[in-house]
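Long-time lurker, finally posting.

We've been working with Amino acid transporter transmembrane domain-containing protein (Gossypium schwendimanii) and I want a structural starting point before designing mutants. I don't trust myself to interpret raw outputs, so I'm hoping someone here can both generate the structure tokens and explain anything notable. Sequence follows.
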Amino acid sequence: MEGKIGMPRLMPKLVNQASFWKLFTTVPVVVTAYICHHNILPIENELKDPTQMKSIVRKSLTLCTSVYIATSFFGVVLFGDHTMDDVLSNFDGDLGIPYSSLLDDLVRVSYGLHLMLVFPIVFFSLRLNVDGLLFPYAIPIAFDNKRFFSVTIALMGFILMGASFVPSIWDAFQFTGATAAVCVGFIFPAAITLRNIPGIATKNDRLISWTMIFLAVSTSTVAVTSDIYSIFYVDEGITS
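Top reply, 14 upvotes:
Generated this for you. Predicted structure of Amino acid transporter transmembrane domain-containing protein:
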């Protein structure tokens, strides 16, 4: 309203080779934001009417997309070209608006509440799959309190160590998005279709599955390579 906001750039600004490779690091983050496959079956089992699952998935993706678009829009409105990779980092100082410190605190508290609500859902699937990998022939973990607490404590300790030593959540999202998220979102579903145990996959389904695997592996390789390149490029720049 005050005329201080520049026109947003519709195309990325490429300064050097590092900025070009950095384009590929955004794809894994976007992929991670839409990965919910691992929670579908547990949630479906809790529904009285499992046929509602498709509607729930559509509404959830629509809601998430709306939140992402709103966040990106207001991030540009507030910070313009100074918007950081992790927009939360922009709320660490004076925003140049009234009640700036209050807004910073509200953002921190809201993100903390978000993590508290999301983490149990993700951790449930993680614990269940790790237990199945380590103890494939044991009784379900829900009926073994000793194993339940042991696996939980071990995983929580590992996660806490990672959260303490990873300097930026953006770095974590880059690597997990380029590896685990790509596998969960694209490679594993395509592999299940190719295995075709029920015998219902068509020739077109198999072609799409191979295409998904090829694109997923290709983009993952480029993303991981660009992540590593960016890290070494930054380190080299700091050293020089």
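Before you design anything, note these points.
Residues 235-240 have pLDDT under 50 and may be disordered.
Residues 38 and 125 are 7 Å apart (CA to CA).
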